[in-house]
Design brief:
A hairpin with a 4-residue loop joins strand 11 and strand 12. The strands form two sheets. A seven-stranded antiparallel β-sheet has the order 10-9-13-7-8-12-11. Strands 2-1-3-5-4-6 form a six-stranded mixed β-sheet, with helices on both faces. The protein contains five helices and 13 strands. With 257 residues, the protein is of the alpha+beta class. Helices cover 19% and strands 26% of the residues.
C-alpha cells in the first residue's frame, strides 16, 4: 500500500485532521499516513505551496501527497489528482505550483466529487472528497478512474517564479519568522550583503555567524535565500512583508547598488 503524506491548515485544536484520517482508515485499513504539517496559517495557499516545495524531494516516489488548504471549498474551484513521480490530491488553486518545480506533472484528472459520497459537504471536502481519493490511490486505484483528464496547462499556478540571480522578493515566512525569498542558489557570484526594507544586512553561512538579536541573510536548507534574526523573529523585528524586494550584492568601491 502506498504511504500518504498529509498537509493542511486544519491545526490540531479541532478534530478535522483526525476525522480525515479516520475516513481514510475506513477505506484502506492499515493505511500509513505521515503528517507533513497542519499548522499552516489558515487559507495561506502561498505558505502551504512552499511547504510542499520544501518537502517533495524527501517524499518517496510513488507515494501519495494529500494537500488541503482550500479557501474556495464549495465553490467552482476544481478537485484534482495530479500524477508526477508522486500522486497529488488537492484543490486546483495553485497549492501544487511549487511542488511542480521539483516534480513536474505528467497527467492530471478531475475528481468526480459524487463518486465518493452523493452529498459531499460544501465545507469539508477533505473528509468527503480529498481524503477518500487519497485512500483509494494508496490502495493502488488508477488515477484515471477518478474523473476526466485535464490539460496540464489548465492547472492553476501561483504567480511565483524562482530567480537564480541577485534581485528577488520575499515569498513567505516560516513559524520562526524567517523570511523565505524566491532567490535560488547557487548564487551567480559571491555575495556579502543584502538590501532589505531599507537596511543593509550581512550575508553569512548560518545563524551562528552573527550575535543573538542580529539579522543575517543566508542560503537556507531548501536552497533558497532566507532572512533571519538570530534567536529572534525577522518578520517582526525588521517589519518584513511578502513581496518585499531583496537585493544581494558584494561591496565594491562604489558601495551598494
Amino acid at each position: 500500500m502506498r504511504k500518504v503524506f498529509f498537509l493542511s491548515d486544519f491545526g490540531l485544536a479541532d478534530p478535522y485532521v483526525g476525522i480525515v484520517k479516520a475516513v481514510m482508515e475506513g477505506i484502506a485499513p492499515g493505511i500509513s499516513i505521515v503528517d507533513l504539517a497542519h499548522e499552516v496559517p489558515p487559507q495561506d495557499v502561498r505558505r502551504a505551496a512552499y511547504g510542499l516545495y520544501e518537502s517533495v524531494p524527501f517524499l518517496p516516489k510513488g507515494s501519495v501527497v494529500l494537500a488541503v488548504v482550500d479557501p474556495g471549498v464549495g465553490s467552482a474551484r476544481r478537485a484534482v489528482v495530479v500524477v508526477g513521480e508522486r500522486f497529488y490530491v488537492a484543490p486546483d488553486n495553485g497549492l501544487l505550483s511549487l511542488a511542480f518545480m521539483r516534480d513536474p506533472p505528467k497527467a492530471a484528472y478531475l475528481i468526480d466529487e459524487q463518486a465518493f459520497t452523493q452529498m459531499p459537504s460544501a465545507t469539508f471536502h477533505a473528509r468527503d472528497v480529498f481524503g477518500p481519493a487519497a485512500a483509494r490511490l494508496a490502495l493502488g486505484v488508477d488515477p484515471s478512474r477518478f474523473g476526466q483528464p485535464i490539460e496540464l496547462e489548465e492547472l492553476v499556478r501561483l504567480p511565483v517564479t524562482f530567480e537564480q540571480g541577485l534581485h528577488g522578493e520575499i515569498l513567505t515566512f516560516d513559524r520562526f519568522g524567517n523570511a523565505i525569498t524566491n532567490l535560488m542558489g547557487p548564487l551567480p557570484e559571491p555575495v556579502e550583503f543584502a538590501l532589505v526594507a531599507g537596511r543593509t544586512l550581512p550575508f553569512a553561512r548560518t545563524y551562528g555567524d552573527v550575535y543573538p538579536g542580529e539579522p543575517v541573510v543566508y542560503l537556507g536548507s531548501a536552497g533558497l535565500v532566507e532572512i533571519a534574526v538570530r534567536e529572534g523573529n525577522a518578520r517582526e523585528a525588521l517589519g518584513l512583508v511578502e513581496g518585499m524586494e531583496v537585493v544581494l550584492y558584494r561591496r565594491q568601491s562604489g558601495g551598494a547598488p
